[in-house]
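agent> step 3/5: call structure_predict on target 'SID1 transmembrane family member 1' (Geodia barretti).
agent> reason: downstream docking stage needs a structural representation; sequence fetched in step 2, passing through unchanged.
tool.input:
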Amino acid sequence: MLFSALVIATVLHIRSVVGDSKSGVVDIQPCSVATGVVSRSLSIAYSLNGNFSLCPDQSYQALRVSTWSGGDGGGQDYPLVFVTRQGRAVDSWTIPFQPPDFTIDFDGVNRTLCYNNMTSVSNSLAYVDVFTSFGENVSFNIVFDPVPNYTLQKDTWYPFQVGASTPQVHVFRFPDGVRTVTVQAKASSSRCAILSVQNVSCPINDLLEEIKSKGHYQTMSTDGFVTISRDVFKYSSFFVVLITTNYSECHSSDYVTLSPLYVNGTVLGFEQRIDVIIRPLQTAPVFPILFPLILFGVLYAITLVFIAVECLLKCRWSFPCKWVYVRKTNVSQDADGERLVPTDRTMGSLNTGGDHSSGDTAVEDSLQLHVMEKAERDLRLSHLCETQLKTLQSHYSVYSWNTVTVGIFYGLPAFQLVLSQQLLATSSGEEDLCYYNFKCSHPVGVLSSFNNVWSNVGYFLLGVLFIIVTFIRETKYTRLRKQKRPYFEKRGIPQFFGIYYAMGLALILEGVMSSLYHICPTNANFQFDTAFMFIIAGLILTKVFQNRHPDIHTNSFIAFFSFAVVIFFTLLGIHYDQRNPVAVRCSLLAITVFMVAGFFTSFYYFHRWKLSKAMFIKVFESWKFFSCKLLHPIRFFKLFGVFVINVIVAIVAIIGNKYIDFATTILTFFLLNVMLFLSMYVISKMCYREPWTLPPMVLPIVVCGLWAAALYFFMNSLTDWKLTPAESRHLNRPCSLMGFYDDHDIWHFLSAFALFFSFLFIMTLDDGIADWQWKDIHVF
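tool.output (status=ok):
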């Protein structure tokens, strides 16, 4: 109503400017071209009659009015004005016609007449007023033609010629029993167009300046895909509107000059062929939704049954608990007479950062050098396990609480942001806000792509399962230590389950944050799920390191601060990588390599090196530090190899900046170092010929297979937020699993399995030396 009032007011104003002009009412017959002349003193009103005898096909449902001028008008300053009146529906346009962001004037415009409540054409009257304020005579042509294929049928392709001034408007009525449909459009060229789905009401917003103010719309280069529910529209029907637009709306590259379409010397617009098909979509199918629950439920059953059977049989090859069997050895043996469990004053305070006297510091530094000067093959777990286990247990238990705290404070604002984005996309109808795989997007409720959100349930379920496994393992370990306390006092790798619980919680939160990201995926919230991938990788690194260095615990607050620093670097890379990618990547990767080198340098000295005055004096006085002979040659070559690999990866990342985004580069860089550290750990176990149980021998094969399959589906990019929404939709592909899940959903399933079995591998890695004395366990 407001739009109609504005148009009428505009018409009255122009007519008042024209002044005392002559006008006439002319009957016009459909399918016949009428030629007229108007000027400042002459206007024409056309009345559409009901005689359709000239139309070759009289089975019409709608009419399209086509207007064009002879090019002899006053240009943009004195245009021809066309106003259509149909009851309360009023619409207008001008010739020459210049759409927004176009520099070319079009001499022809086509508009589809709108009929309120889908009233029959034969029962509706239509009037067209034509006038101008130009002083000279201006000629024009006008014709009313039936719209072919006005009503679209499901599962049928329809070809249309679409231009910037010649939009196509068609209607679709929901068949009985169909609740949701998908409107798919495929263009013959990579020009830019807009696909709009609007409610059946007048006026039809089919021009560029108004098409985005009604219904759902998206830009399209070669592919468009809109999913529509029956409940959205009042009359269970909707208009499908197509119109071409400026090239720059769809493409991030420089504007490409395109040649407009000329007909008899008249500029009609940039026309291209667009094919449209409408297909019914099954809404929330039961079995595909239950599939993840069944899939992961089977793993629940197998794991818990396996645990129960192993614990009942007390098998040596236990899974996942090795603690039901130990080798009978002499309990009285000690670690070469060395003090194993002293007070916290020796090394505990050193690692907790407590206050020290000068005498204590000298003693501690002397102990540091004692460890540093030992040959790697002579260093045993007894040398690095001097703090009371209860004290260490309290330190490691903080990891789980910090993980929960970070998840809550990070997750709530993230949920608020993505929910606001989703509601904005729903209310505005702009489907360019979120980067979905529109060819496999199943809406449920307020979620536009429920399948991408639901497929993350595996992270949650397997995170809970890992926590259950950890609890069972901890319970058995605690009970056996109480039953055989003297025997278990100094045997096996000291078990601290706080990091295991943190790993399970991080897996749960990875699923939660990935779900939040997929509510409305954009480059603004890409960090939501990758942040917890950094945390998971960091926890794995911490846990593997802690196995052989239990006394050197990393403060959990410092650890999470380190994760935040890595995420901050990634944030800088995301926002500045497009401006100067080489400089940004060189700077940030250099910092990252320096941090890795610092960590592995500390690793070379068994993390016992400390910046203090007494330490420097001892180092200066030690002749070994002046010789060319390496203290720990094996450890040095490990460090050197890792450093070389990191430099090579950094160079590849800089060279390949056009192919891999910076966030993925940093995450890959971080995960690679975790894999290197874990590989060094496994190789060292093999070099020292430590015994293996069955699970850590089988699990690597399973884990590698799962990660290989998962990465295959991950590399099949279905969206790319570095591109424009229209360019990203070119990567969309149909569902690949049960007609409900796409390749990225399969990545969610497989990566959840891979992470779970990776956790189990780390948990059972040292079960083979569960009954070894500390003096026999090497440090590496």
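agent> step 4/5: record observation. The CA atoms of residues 44 and 232 lie 40 Å apart.
agent> proceeding.
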